[in-house]
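JOB MANIFEST
job_type = single_chain_structure
chain_count = 1
residues = 419
[input]
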Amino acid sequence: MANSNVARLALLGGPRAVDRPAPRWPMAGDLEVAWMEGVVRSGKWSWLGPHERAFCEEFSSLTGARHAMLLANGTVTIQVALKAVGVQPGDQVIVPGLTWTATMQAALDISADVVLVDVDPETFCIDPAAVEAAITPKTKAVVPVQIYGCMCDMDALTDIAKRHNLKIVEDAAHQHGSRWRNRGAGSLGDAGSFSFQSSKALTCGEGGAITCNDDAVFEAAFCLKHVGWMPDVRTPGRRYGHNFRATEMQAVLLRGGLRRFGDQMRVREENAQILAEGLREIGGALRTARRDPRVTRQSYYALTLHYDKTRALGLERSQYMRALSAEGVSLSVPYPPVYRHDILNLYDATSPVPYREATISQNYAELRLPVTERLCAEEGLVMGHLHLLGERAYIEQLLTAVLKVQDHLPDLQKHFAEA
């Protein structure tokens, strides 16, 4: 159990509770350097080189999916996966209101009608009841976003999809290696999409992958990403394709990352459990999201947290975060509601939204999703996965900082009242 012996908060001039440095991210080693030199000297920099082929086999093994393919980034993976499962212009695709912009953008960019729905208040993941309520005769697919440190209720979503003849494209950008009932994220629907952007738990700077179990979906996706070629790369396909290929350099970084990934995933899961138990013992304003027992392995992009201002003398979330930040604890707020995100600019002239048919199903400017908005504005917090790689002493200091802030809430309340 953490203990707080420091009389003065760091925000008020006292020493920091956390004096150990956070782990650095991203990571790479000598193996990647040697492989990278070999690739550079080989002249085989793209077009299904040996490292790309090997990575696809290794990633398929990690996820449990029959097929895996490497693409340029984790946005085009969603575009390609949606098209590969049969989404056509004008089809409705159901997406959670709490997600990164790429999930919505990818569907808009293939001229789908994006229908945004609310999320589960505990996990921040898409709410199956909201999904079912949003289904119309035009609905073609659902994109469950396995967000931060939680997984969606895939039992309920699979049941809904079967009853309504819908496709499921998992946005598993945060869930490399997670398992639902011992089945890997990315293998649970008709297709899975992963991101390898530099902040992700498995990264090559930029990159993405599609996973699937169906041969026809794999063939369609391969043609779409590989300028129309079939998977044998000798036979022209029967689809209009694009160049969404990745490079051998990306594959090298990913293969190196995979060799550390199992140990890192174990450490993250162990430290997440220590933090969850420690926060429960403190009994303060901060707690972790409850883990669904059907999640048999949780890979963390971030630890999902809830803030309760009633347990912090009414302090606003931003004030509580400032106090913890001064102590050396780095927390972030969740993504803004995707329909309010400043960088998405849904009604800019370059966006597809202003040019949609007048019969479109949602007016995003007027949309209100109460759970999403409450989590984003008041209750939700996340801790990035790099902190979960810290040594035990670092994790204990994080808990000490939380306890210290909790023990000095009156001082904080007075400080902000006088500010």
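[summary]
The chain has twelve helices and 13 strands.
The chain has a mean pLDDT of 96.
exit_status = 0
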